[in-house]
Design brief:
Elements: H1 3-8, E1 9-14, H2 18-21, E2 22-32, H3 36-43, E3 47-48, E4 53-57, E5 60-64, E6 67-68, E7 85-88, H4 91-102, E8 106-116, E9 119-129, H5 132-158
Length: 159
Amino acid sequence: MSKAEKSARRHIAQNRRARHDYEILEEVECGLVLTGTEVKSLRGGKATLDQAYAHFRGSELFLIGAHIAEYTQGNVHNHAPLRERKLLLHKRELLRWQDKVKERGFTLVPLSMYFEGSRAKLLLALARGKREYDKRQATREREDRREMDRATSRARRGQ
């Protein structure tokens, strides 16, 4: 991905707890089926993915629990903030992910929502829930890495 493509992405919302609570195995970019007022609300950055997850219904994939605030300038035809939204993937990818989700312990967790050009996209991850000891081990590794970085920077300053 080039620098120009990365700068074309405008992040709307991120699920920061996902990387802490889940072991991320695979990621895929999905399109979203949205209404007009949802898009306008997203352009204002009014979305959260904290309690969101994806679920298969038949052969279709839906985003459940994502909150997109009502558009303030909207009228009686405004959208419901917690409605289920259809996710768009190629049929091949849908079938492959559906097989993996059927395996025990896997879930589909949204990591971030962003605009790529004029289209709203969702970064979806195939994940397995972490146990409490896994979380403690990850925290310990992160703290050890920080301490090593501090020690090397102190050593560089001392030279």
